[in-house]
Amino acid sequence: MRFCRFSYGGKTTWGILEDEKVQPLAGPPYYGIVKEGEPLLLADVKLVAPVEPSKIICLGLNYADHAKEMGVALPEEPVLFMKPPSSIIGPGEAIVMPDVSRRVDYEAELAVVMGKKAYKVSREKALEFVFGYTCANDVTARDLQQKDGQWTRSKSFDTFCPLGPWLETELDPSSLNIELKQNGVIKQKSNTENLIFKVPEIISFISSVMTLFPGDVILTGTPAGVGPVEPGDVLEVIIEGIGTLENRVKL
């Protein structure tokens, strides 16, 4: 099933997407699906970011080709960092380049959205705690990342975590084509089968460190081909079985 969050009539709510229509829901579907009101045409609503997490946990260097292009060794265990919820934007919203950065990069990623509270879960049971998947762009101020020697500032600016366009629940994350287009030109192209640490292992590892709550987001890493953006660029993250997340860049 496909779930979304949308704005209509001055109100933002959850919905189920089916046949170009949106069935409004009374609340987040993690806790049960309660329909509310009549279906609306998808064309009549505005999709917003499909999740409101308590935290966003990200993996760095989780594709071998990306680690190579960054000039670093392959990690022995998942490399974690975080982005704040305030960095989230939805489909169609603008990525704003900060004044303090001279180079901002795109990074296409598969995002995992948790559906159950998870703490110290095994790899074998990890996928049972997942609600769904969506597209993500881990936007990064690359010059600040290199300058600071750690990643918090470079990853955390408002608008630096586009998510969407919706959540897909019926998906096997082990082999999904993923690509990024910049102004219609393919810049990144890979498959999640090339992840160094697979989704179940990622969830198990993170949950051994911190409790994951329903709605929390995990960004699983980006493949090779990351590059700079310019004002006016249109970025599309396209993931097989999910769809396309499109955002424009502005100053």
From TrEMBL:
Residues 1-50 form the Rv2993c-like N-terminal domain. It is an enzyme of class 4 (lyase). Its EC number is 4.3.2.3. Keywords: Lyase, Metal-binding. GO terms for biological process: carboxylic acid metabolic process. Pfam families: FAA_hydrolase (PF01557), Rv2993c-like_N (PF10370). Residues 55-249 form the Fumarylacetoacetase-like C-terminal domain. One of its GO terms (molecular function) is ureidoglycolate lyase activity. Belongs to the FAH family. PANTHER family: ACYLPYRUVASE, ACYLPYRUVASE FAHD1, MITOCHONDRIAL. This is Ureidoglycolate lyase. It comes from Fervidicola ferrireducens.
